[in-house]
């Protein structure tokens, strides 16, 4: 079985991210931890090094979200185990045992698990050994390593579970890693918005929002997580008109379909009356009128839907990375930008005011930094 250097790199980079914040001393949930690191590993040309940066957030329930990036790409953490700290004689010096689990090559023919077994020192540094094993869904190893478990697991005693230790014995030593980082203020309180900008999402809960099919929605690690099932939407409780809306989104797993529902009105139903700014993977920037009209319509004139495609090729980032959306609704005009690129414009829109919503439509998607600036 061949594993590329890039795959090895992603394994180290993403796995390292998880350890530090979960174990940090005197950290009140929720919190975010950012840092930089380096890894030395055995590659196809001998010992190789890679530099990376990362961030991780953990919410009040212990659920985590985060991303690590390097020149070779990005990756996400799957699970983490950690034991209680051990205090030493030196003031402020302590060490904890930690096991971080990452699945790499997730969409390839031979998915692998990368495991970091290390120690955290003084809230600043993580040193660890990196190990590698093959991944078989529903296998004892996968279950022991907590693949699919989104909770950070803190062990109250000083011992890791026996089944985890047994699984680790089947992993192959692969290299070492070191990171250094620190905390930052949670996203919901980083700064006071200027120019009358409104934070529609506070980073903690769904205050100010209404959920149609609420089982699909939750807040984790300062971001909104949508499972994609059941089909429905999350919308504001207030109606808005004449504004600039900005937010970020990403696909944490396999990408799929979603949308931003603008000027929502009439009754709440799965497909409400609105203008949809498309979020379907590779189609972000398309515009759909659901029960409403606009001048640039390319669909059937007498049909229930209006449609106009984006102006340029898709400029979405690869799945797992955050994208930015900017939407300007000014009178009867809607304009869209994806990752800073102008992508669409509709004029003569027949509805000009209503709720703002996000769709749940089949697969997981995440949202953060949802802000609205009134234009008038």
Task: List its traits.
single chain, disordered N terminus, Jelly Rolls, 46% strand, 376 residues, 2 domains, elongated, 26 strands, mainly beta
Q: What does this 3D model show about the protein?
A:
With 376 residues, the protein is mostly beta strands. It has two domains: 5-184, no CATH class; 187-374, Sandwich (Jelly Rolls), CATH 2.60.120. Helices cover 8% and strands 46% of the residues. It has three helices and 26 strands. The protein has helices at residues 5-23, 140-144, 162-168, and strands at residues 31-43, 46-58, 64-70, 73-75, 79-83, 86-87, 94-104, 112-121, 125-134, 153-155, 172-184, 198-199, 209-212, 217-220, 223-226, 232-236, 243-250, 259-265, 273-278, 287-290, 305-308, 323-330, 333-338, 341-346, 355-360, 365-374. Strands 1, 2, 3, 4, 5, 6, 7, 8, 9, 10 and 11 form an eleven-stranded mixed beta sheet that branches. β22 (323-330) and β23 (333-338) form a beta hairpin. The protein is elongated, with a radius of gyration of 23 Å.
